[in-house]
Design goal:
Blueprint lengths: L3 H7 L22 H8 L11 H8 L7 E3 L10 H11 L29 E4 L4 E4 L7 H9 L14 H9 L9 E7 L1 H7 L12 H25 L4 E7 L15 H12 L5 E6 L5 H5 L5 E4 L1 H4 L7 H9 L3 E7 L3 H4 L4 H16 L9 E5 L8 H23 L1
Parallel strand pairs: 1-9, 4-5, 5-6, 6-7, 7-8, 8-9
Antiparallel strand pairs: 2-3
Helix pairs in contact: 2-15, 4-6, 4-15, 5-8, 8-9, 14-15
């Protein structure tokens, strides 16, 4: 029997099974990237045999299966083009514009999407932002523009989102591969809870001013969708509202009813010409988000896999009306990234798929899979590692199925 590496390099199609292998890179003809990954994996042998019947699953996986990957938005880079390079390399089918909070305070989640709103006080040097409800300048013009449907009056500036503008310029690099273009904004609940007034009170409890916030985020979302569609005509826009503060919903500190929260989201997303998703990176009362009119729920399945399925009746209703769930399979913490390998994540995906099928949902549908949360707090090497895992997850999931 030939030595293993000789068999590997030969590219022969009808050799006897070799038995075991580990930590080698497949270089022969006919080896798919998934096969090469398994050969170079950190997982030591035994490996599957090299005869044609054993290799077939690597080359000819189920053509009916489709997994698309993207990420939440934030990245730790300070160079915009380096961030775009990473996005296009990982997610050419759903490229997302990168938010770079380490680059500038203007890219922080409460500043980036509300720049230019009446009463908003931004101190770039002190890196603080709050609402001065005593200031009324600009409110009348704001409502006039809103009532007229003038979305061009509500742009997200290049100072606050250079990654958005640069991504649009560089989309031709992946033309022909794009299925969706993804954007994201901080959601209304998180803005209402996290943004404070001059008395340090969450703005969500000031009905008059919070109405401005809701209308502003709706118009900025519409502006973003329009900008993406104009640059990439004929391509569907996927727009996420990021809602990390939803983890506090239902606590004694947030006395807001389900009905109010649900109507809040529906008011903001109404009429948007996009596939609309909500991202929450922690545990929450999922019945609230499942009752909204969003198309897609994105959650941290790495850390909170089961929590969504505690709300089985609401989840079944959501899926029955055409809603979809996008699990965050790839971890977003440096500690977790240091201990997982791709096969772990592939198995986690299949756990999610199985759990979803138990609700009556079709298991063979197009899936959108993400990182568990944004990667902006990581160092660059960990972020690149997370994106690399995400990039190879579709093939790894197929390999795991074949195995």
């Amino acid at each position: 029997m030939k030595p293993f590496m000789q068999v590997l390099r030969s590219g022969a199609e009808s050799l006897p099974c070799e038995g075991t292998a580990s930590r080698y890179l497949g270089e022969g003809r006919g080896f798919s990237m998934s096969a090469r990954w398994r050969l170079s994996s950190q997982q030591p042998g035994p490996f599957r045999c090299l005869c044609p019947s054993c290799l077939t699953p690597f080359r000819d996986y189920d053509k009916n299966w489709s997994m698309l990957v993207t990420s939440i938005g934030s990245l730790p880079f300070v160079d915009v083009d380096a961030a775009i390079d990473a996005v296009l390399a990982c997610c050419p089918e759903i490229p997302f514009w990168p938010q770079l909070p380490k680059r500038s305070f203007w890219e922080s989640m409460y500043v980036q999407c509300l720049e230019g709103i009446p009463g908003l006080v931004i101190d770039g040097e002190a890196e603080t932002v709050y609402v001065d409800t005593r200031k009324t300048d600009g409110i009348e013009r704001f409502y006039e523009a809103f009532s007229a449907g003038n979305i061009d009056a509500f742009p997200v500036s290049e100072r606050a989102a250079p990654g958005f503008y640069r991504l649009l310029e560089r989309l031709p690099e992946v033309s022909g591969r794009i299925r969706y273009v993804k954007g994201q904004l901080t959601g209304p609940f998180t803005l209402g809870i996290g943004l404070k007034d001059e008395k340090d009170k969450p703005i969500i409890y000031d009905g008059a001013y919070f109405d401005i916030i809701k209308k502003a985020i709706r118009m900025k979302a519409a502006w973003m969708v329009k900008a993406m569609k104009s640059r990439c005509p004929g391509t569907e826009v996927l727009l996420f509202f990021d809602e990390p503060a939803m983890v506090s919903f239902g606590s004694a500190f947030v006395p807001i009813s389900k009905e109010v929260a649900t109507s809040l989201f529906d008011e903001v997303i109404e009429g948007l010409d996009a596939t609309v998703g909500i991202h929450c990176c922690g545990n929450t009362d999922w019945s609230v988000l499942l009752a909204t009119g969003v198309d897609l729920i994105n959650y941290d399945a790495f850390n909170f896999m089961d929590t969504l399925f505690y709300f089985r009746p609401e989840l079944s209703t959501f899926l029955a009306r055409g809603g979809r769930v996008a699990p965050g399979i790839v971890p977003s913490s440096g500690e977790a990234l240091g201990r997982v390998v791709l096969t772990d994540l592939a198995r986690l995906w299949h756990t999610f798929e199985r759990r979803l099928s138990e609700t009556g949902s079709a298991s063979k549908q197009e899936a959108v899979v993400t990182t568990a949360c944004g990667l902006g707090s990581l160092d660059e090497s960990d972020a690149r590692h997370a994106l690399e895992l995400l990039k190879h997850l579709p093939e790894a999931a197929q390999t795991e199925t074949a195995g």
